[in-house]
Amino acid sequence: MAGRFITFEGIDGAGKSTHHAWMVEFLRAKGHAVVSTREPGGTPLGEKLRGLLLSEAMDLETEAMLMFAARREHIVQIISPALAAGKWVVSDRFTDASFAYQGGGRGLARSKLQQLEAWVQGTGTGALQPDLTFLFDLDVAIAAKRLQGMGQVADRFEQEKTDFFERVRQAYLDRAKDFPERFRVIDAGSSVDSIHVLLEKIITSVC
Ligand code: TYD
Questions:
Q1: pLDDT digit string, tens, across residues 71-125
Q2: Could you tell me the maximum CA-CA distance found in the chain, to the nearest angstrom?
Q3: Ligand 1, closest atom to CA 152?
Q4: What is the per-residue pLDDT across 130-163, written as a single tens digit (0 to 9) for each?
Q5: Which of 41, 64, 106, 162 is a good FRET partner for 171, with 20 to 30 A between their CA atoms?
Q6: What is the pLDDT of residues 65-86, one digit of tens each?
Q7: Region 152-176 average pLDDT
Q8: How far, in Å, CA of 134 to CA of 36, rounded?
């Protein structure tokens, strides 16, 4: 039996990593074999690329291509083999992040991202796409406050200004509208407990 591919998305500070970790534990407790992973990253090479992507200034198209290069490695080494073995792959970010950050945030043409997506994930019925995507949606000012409260050094994306994150947020919401069958938009301003109740309800009904 093929596994399930679930992705977690949202602007920086929306809390998606907390909910991602919770989901991994929830599914494991239910007895599923779960691969917990993230992007950019998820493989030794991908984690090296992540280090560069989060710290080095670079041309926008270089940035997009490196995101997809790391993704290709992630798919070939981790995601596809796990799904073929019937495991659940739960990833903290995937391609929707490229459409939101490089597309919405930085303004890269959607057609270029679509070409990279088709190259890296395939096309038609054989294309790799998540079965379910949770989008944690939050007011940009609140997300920025949460990030500050975490007291970590801001990476290259987290240093961006409010209007960048407004565009990222909007691009995510546009993606959710374009792919309503796989997206579930979660109000990330709700309490952590109420979000987990909702996530449990969704995951049990959809998968
Ligand atoms: P993030 O999940 O926020 O890591 P952390 O929680 O450890 O800070 O991901 C790192 C950054 O990478 C985030 O700011 C969004 C960015 N990103 C892109 O710009 N495009 C992509 O395709 C992906 C996967 C991530």
A1: 999 999 999 999 999 999 999 999 999 999 999 999 999 999 999 999 999 999 9
A2: 45
A3: 8
A4: 999 999 999 999 999 999 998 889 999 999 999 9
A5: 41
A6: 999 999 999 999 999 999 999 9
A7: 96
A8: 15
Question: Ligand 1 atom 3: the closest Cα is on which residue?
Answer: 12
Q: Which residue's alpha carbon is nearest to atom 13 within ligand 1?
A: 157
Instruction: Give the per-residue pLDDT at 151.
Output: 86
Q: How far is the CA of 80 from the centre of ligand 1 (A)?
A: 21
37-51 burial: b if 16+ Cβ within 10 Å, else e: bbbbbbbeebeebbe
Q: Which is the closest atom of ligand 1 to the Cα of 38?
A: 2
**What residues does ligand 1 touch, defined as CB less than 6 Å away?**
12, 17, 39-40, 67, 92-93, 97-98, 101-102, 157-158
pTM here is 0.97
Q: Tokens for 83? A: 């799904």
Model pLDDT, residue 76: 98
| Cβ partners under 8 Å of residue 89, min gap 6 | 3, 4, 5, 6, 34, 35, 37, 78, 79, 82, 83
How far does residue 47's CA lie from ligand 1's centre (Å)?
12
CA distance 194 to 7: 20
